[in-house]
Amino acid sequence: MANKKKKGGHEEHINESWLIPYADLLTLLLALFIVLFASSQIDQKKFQEIARSFNTAFAGGTGVLDFQSPVQPITPPDQDEKGQERSSPPSRSVSGQEKEELAEIKAKIDAYIRQNKLSGKLQTSLDDEGLAITILDDILFDSGSADVRIKDRRLAAEISKLLVMNPPRDIIISGHTDNVPIHNAQFASNWELSVMRAVNFMKVLLENKQLDPRRFSAKGYGEYKPIASNATAAGRMKNRRVEILILPRSDTSPSSAR
After folding, report:
1. In this structure, is the dihedral angle defined by the CA atoms of residues 95, 101, 105 and 106, taken in order, positive or negative?
2. Between β-strands 216-222 and 171-176, what pairing exists: parallel, antiparallel or unpaired?
3. How far apart are CA 194 and CA 219, in angstroms?
4. In angstroms, how far is the first alpha carbon of the chain from the final one?
5. DSSP structural state of residue 19
6. Would you tell me which of 33, 60, 112, 194 could form a disulfide with 175, CB atoms 3.0–4.6 Å apart?
7. Residue 49 buriedness (CB in 10 A; 0-12 / 13-18 / 19+)
8. Helix or strand or coil: residue 244?
9. What is the pLDDT of residue 32?
10. Burial degree of 98 (CB within 10 A; 0-12, 13-18, 19+)
11. Between 189 and 55, whose confidence is greater?
């Protein structure tokens, strides 16, 4: 009876040896997910290096992580999938009709410049980017100032009349300076000065109610787009300028959509 009781009270021991490989498997799965997550942040070469490191650490060099990277190598923008250089898309050229129309506008502006003897202050140029009118800054602004001088507002008004076109075109006003540093109560840099000159000149132009403000934008380049050397006074004078860029119309421009 005593033996039977003793036998009935004996607890069987549960074999837990399976927990060791199970824990190893979980560790390897964790390492796999870490590698997969990291692979989204690195290139394929680094991925393979990490995979080999984990193989050595967790499996003694066996192929637990020895598989092809799921991350496809990114093809450089100037190459195709075979690694061959891809030709750059051709730049959009201005149509012949647009060139003719812009040339007519240029001739009109050039005639105004000659009649008013402003050839030393206003210049025009025409290329695929559009028709540019360059105005040297000393005809509009005092040194270090972004306010259009009262005596020159009439000239700005005359220029605004030349910009009235049917249909209208998009126009960009850009300000430029020389490389002489500026730091006064109003401006901490040439960049700020160039921006405000462009904006203030644009405001004067838009006092002409025949111009559509939605067609205008202003940019400031500071000293970073010189057209002459800053080593001479004459070169610095050329670099201090405001430019009006009349853009050619395109099929996607607002004017063509109207």
Report:
1. positive
2. parallel
3. 8
4. 108
5. H
6. 194
7. exposed
8. strand
9. 79
10. middle
11. 189
Tokens 């644009």, residue located: 202
Q: Is the sign of the CA dihedral 161, 162, 167, 170 positive or negative?
A: negative
Q: What's the whole-model pTM score?
A: 0.60
Q: Tokens in use for 180?
A: 């002489």
Sorted by sequence, the CB contacts under 8 Å of residue 149 that are 6+ apart come out as 140, 141, 142
Distance of CA 244 to the CA centre of its chain: 21
Give the tokens for residue 224: 């970073």
Q: How far is CA 166 from CA 101, 106, 125, 215, 245, in A?
A: 11, 15, 21, 13, 17
What's residue 47's pLDDT?
Answer: 58
- Rounded Cα–Cα distance for residues 59 and 61 (Å): 5
Residues in the chain: 258
Q: What are phi and psi of 52, to 5 degrees?
A: -65, -35
